[in-house]
What we know:
By secondary structure, this protein is of the alpha+beta class. The protein folds into three domains: 1-115, 2-Layer Sandwich (Beta Polymerase, domain 2); 136-244, Hydrophobic Seed Protein (Orthogonal Bundle); 270-361, no CATH class. 47% of the residues lie in helices and 10% in strands. It has helices at residues 12-18, 35-40, 88-93, 116-122, 137-148, 158-170, 178-189, 194-203, 207-210, 227-234, 240-250, 254-269, 276-285, 292-305, 310-321, 325-330, 335-351, and strands at residues 6-10, 27-31, 44-46, 52-54, 61-64, 67-70, 78-81, 103-104, 110-111, 124-125, 155-156. The strands form three sheets. A seven-stranded mixed β-sheet has the order 3-4-5-2-1-8-9. Strands 6-7 form a two-stranded antiparallel sheet. A hairpin with a 6-residue loop joins β4 (52-54) and β5. It starts with 5 loop residues before the first strand and ends in a 10-residue tail after the last helix. The mean pLDDT is 94. The structure holds cytidine-5'-triphosphate. Cytidine-5'-triphosphate binds at residues 11-12, 25, 27, 95-96, 100-101, 135, 137-138, 141. Its cofactor is Mg(2+). Residues 153-215 form the tRNA nucleotidyltransferase/poly(A) polymerase RNA and SrmB- binding domain.
Amino acid sequence: MLPKATVYLVGGAVRDELLGLPVKDKDWVVTGTTPDHMLQQGFQQVGKQFPVFLHPKTKEEYALARKERKQGIGYTGFVCDFAPDIRLEEDLERRDLTINAIAKTDDGVLIDPFHGRQDLEKRVLRHVSDAFIEDPLRVLRVARFMARFASFGFHIAPETKALMAAIAESGELNSLTPERVWRETENALQSDHAQVYFDVLQEVGALEHLFPKLAYHTKQLAKQWDKHARWSLITAETPVAALTELNAYLRAPNQFSWFSEQSRLFIETNTLPLDSVTWEAWLSSVAAIKKPQPFEKLISILAHLTETEAKHWLALRASIAKVNAQTLMKQGFSGAELGQALKQARIEAIAKLNNPLLLKV
Ligand SMILES: Nc1ccn([C@@H]2O[C@H](COP(=O)(O)OP(=O)(O)OP(=O)(O)O)[C@@H](O)[C@H]2O)c(=O)n1
């Protein structure tokens, strides 16, 4: 690096440390240097558009201080300036929130031209400058930070909320690829207060643009749920046909689409209690025996949505798990006949149960 090159820790690492949270990824900014000098120092360039480098040993990200100016519509409409005379303050100014625009020097001095520390103390998410509108993804990021930091009691500054609403109104959110939308959403679903993400997006008028056809009503999500279950609960009121389209549009990974669609489908097509034939068909359609873990997760979602007890659902599975194919084979069944006999035996096993989910006929 050039002798005058200076390295600063920036972004989430500084923010999380000040909040007393564990620091995951460290991002660094370098001023006073050039891509060539970074390469000479053994850094490895990643991404062609922006001058971002990986440290030869730590593999942490080092970005040259840069200014961005928007040109045209959408995420790709940027020109990027990263001359060595760009000052740290200029780099911090293009960032999304004041709490994400604090830098720290090697010897621990904080550089905070936009008063991010004060906003951290006051629990405010506030945009740094008009550059906020240059990346519509920031609407989702703010919603995600509200969810992640819900237990700290953050709120969004009114002027920032107004900008978020203006971005939603402008149609710019449509320039985000579904993959980027999903990445932020999956990230938000990892937090205990994931519903806050959807509440914020709804409040600023972004939800309908990002999640077409999602029927959303806010609800508290208990801590016990994982990200797949949370997505199922968030989407629980969306008709299954619309939900299938939404999951496909978002490229939601398999487990998200499976749990959400199976739980919604069950609710849409059944009214409890059900007879033993219907239960047997359903248990086999969701691979209750072959895949016990996903099944247990599915029933914990369904038990919650139908306000029934999970133990009754588990009892249905337990009854068919006892039906033994070996015994039927010894009785001379094979091939398609064996399949039929197995099905019949399972139906009979369910019918014998004394279970409030079972319709006695
Ligand atoms: N659309 C974006 C994405 C990132 N940043 C800036 O780049 C930093 C690093 O971004 P990233 O690693 O994506 O997020 P973090 O803030 O570190 O948050 P997380 O803990 O979720 O990774 C942010 O703090 C912020 O200063 C931004 O201004 N606008």
